[in-house]
Design a protein that fits this description.
- The protein has a single domain, classed as Porin (Beta Barrel), CATH 2.40.160.20.
- Helix content is 13%, strand content 54%.
Length: 171
């Protein structure tokens, strides 16, 4: 059996070094925002906050990486004052299109933690992003399917919203 924790750590380190390499070789256009802070409703969690960084940009394609933290609700938990499921996630997002409107395709592995429950999901993001010309702000809507869901007990499902909305500000 694959140790999910070791796999998550190795994947995270690999992503970090790949991003560092890509960042060091990316073009330096100071007129376009490359860093974003965004708020997401729905998708992998009920609410989450992300830091997103542009890694590569060409005329019709951009590659971004993101790191996030979110909250979710455990569907079977009926105790109202109990804490939520916490999620940390990182991912890659491809933007295809011309300035202002993009098709957005991404992969977002997420590590979920709740009491003694720990699991990792692989979620997708398929949607549309509408951005200002300088990419200083954007709005995005997407379908967020679970691609890999390793929890074996089907009664231990957590609340899942398959549509996500993101709003971001760039700097």
């Amino acid at each position: 059996m694959i140790n999910v924790r070791v796999l998550s750590i190795k994947s995270g380190l690999l992503l970090f070094f790949v991003l560092q390499y890509l960042n060091s070789n990316a073009g330096n256009d100071s007129t376009v925002c490359k860093n974003f802070i965004n708020f997401q409703f729905g998708g992998q969690t009920i609410v989450s906050w992300h830091y997103e960084r542009n890694l590569l940009t060409s005329r019709y394609y951009s590659l971004n990486a993101n790191l996030g933290f979110g909250f979710n609700e455990y569907a079977r938990d009926m105790i109202p004052d109990d804490r939520p499921i916490y999620c940390t996630h990182f991912g890659l997002v491809s933007l295809i299109g011309e300035v202002g409107s993009y098709i957005e395709i991404g992969l977002n592995p997420g590590r979920y933690m709740y009491k003694s429950i720990r699991f990792t999901n692989l979620n997708g993001w398929f949607g549309f992003r509408f951005a200002a010309e300088d990419k200083s702000v954007f709005l995005s809507i997407g379908y967020t399917p679970r691609l890999i869901y390793p929890k074996v007990d089907p009664t231990d499902k957590y609340f899942n919203i398959p549509i996500g909305l993101k709003a971001a500000a760039g700097f």
